[in-house]
Every structure is written in C-alpha cells, then in structure tokens.
Amino acid sequence: xxxxxxxxxxINNGFKASGLKAVLFDMDGVLFDSMPRHAKAWVRVCRDxxxxxxxAEPYYxxxxxxxxxxxxxxxxxxxxxxxxxxxxxxxxxxxxYFNDYAEEAPQMPxxxxxxxxxxxxxLTIVVVTGSxxxxxxxxxxxxxxxxxxxxxxxxxxxxxRGKPAPDPYLMGLKKAGVAASEAVVIENAPLGxxxxxxxxxxxxxxxxxxxDERVLYDAGAGIVFPSMQACADAWPDFLSxxxxxx
Length: 246
Ligand code: CA
Hints:
Blueprint (H helix, E strand, L loop, with lengths): L21 E4 L9 H14 L8 H4 L5 H13 L5 H18 L9 H10 L3 E5 L7 H8 L9 E2 L12 H10 L6 E5 L2 H9 L3 E5 L6 H6 L4 E3 L2 H17 L2
Helix pairs in contact: 1-4, 3-4, 5-10
The site of calcium ion has 9 residues, from loops.
C-alpha cells in the first residue's frame, strides 16, 4: 500500500505519543477469522432458549462478555434479567456449538505478518478479549506459537466490567506496564473500539465484519483499515505518520 493510501488519522482527544511501547490486540475478528462461527453459535443457542435474535444481531454485541449479552437478550425477549444459572448454561452451550463449528478457528489473513512486524520492533504484545472460553490460550498458542505470554492476556475473567467499558483495556495497559499514550489498540468491533477509546488509547480498527466502516469511525477509531492484511501492509508507514502527527 502506498503511503498516500493510508486514511487520514483522527487523533483521539488527549492522545499524546510519547514513544510506542505496546500493541493491544483484540482476538476474535482480529487474530482469528472466527466471528461468523461465533454468530452462528449465538443464534442457535439463543433460539434453543426462546431468544429469537436475528442472524446479524451477534455482530452488534461483539466484544461484550457472554453474561452481558445473554442478559440483554433475556430482558428483550423474556422481559427480565438473566439468572446466574441461565448465564452459565447458555454460555456453556454456546461455547460447545462454537467448538463444533470450529475446532481450529482459522487465522485472520495478515495477522501473523502484523504480529511479526510488531515483535520485530521490540513492542510488547497484549491480547484483550471479551471471551472467557477455556480453550482461549490453547487457541492463541496453537495459532500463533511464541507470540503470546499468559500474563499478557486479558480475558472476561480479569475484569468485572467488559467492553464497551474501558476496564479490559485498562487492565491490558496495567499488565504491560505502559501508559495509554504508549500503546495502540487493534480492534474490529464498535463496542471494542469504544472500550479502547474510553481507556484513552489510540485505536486502529480493522473492518473484518459486515458493518460499514463509518460505524467504527463513529465509535472513535483513529483510523480504519479494510482488513488485517491492509493494516499489516501499511504498518511501517502508519507508525511514521502517527509519530509525525504529534
Ligand atoms: Ca473482536
């Protein structure tokens, strides 16, 4: 990608570059091309339980924890909050369906290349996901051997509030030992972008799903790439443009 092809940067309020030290990656829809399978599993389990969501609905909740998502659906379709038992059971069944659909979720094209560039620059790599699946670390290790450390992974069990609250990304900064101004986030979902921006972090969105890129800019993304491959291709120029913007 030519430098001129990089979209202009929208610097988040309060963002000041003081030397990039860490890149915080979302997982589903960024590292793994897993969202279509997640969406299918959500639709199936919800309909099993009388929660008649549309096929597109899961994409609007991407990034939310399972508990929060289930609660929104029971309030809408059953007129009451979800019980703890429902949350546990529905999420467990959803994970089982997901695993049926994808024993090995495919890598997102371009993700390995971007991770390699980030690692070669000596930057700390962190994963911040709303997922709480037990298989998460095995998925990361199997898909991207050697890039991730357990202590630098934030999952749904690490914070009380999930995305779109800033807590998961604030925890990611804490685990990496860096300030918001020393990090960049890579996200694909509107709620994930909101969470990262609320944590004060410059957010790169990759539009790997079915939504219009405008939704990601509206959520506060500083820049939107059409794919992880486009992001990986433009990464060196993006970094120089980012530092030049300050
Ligand atoms: Ca995601």
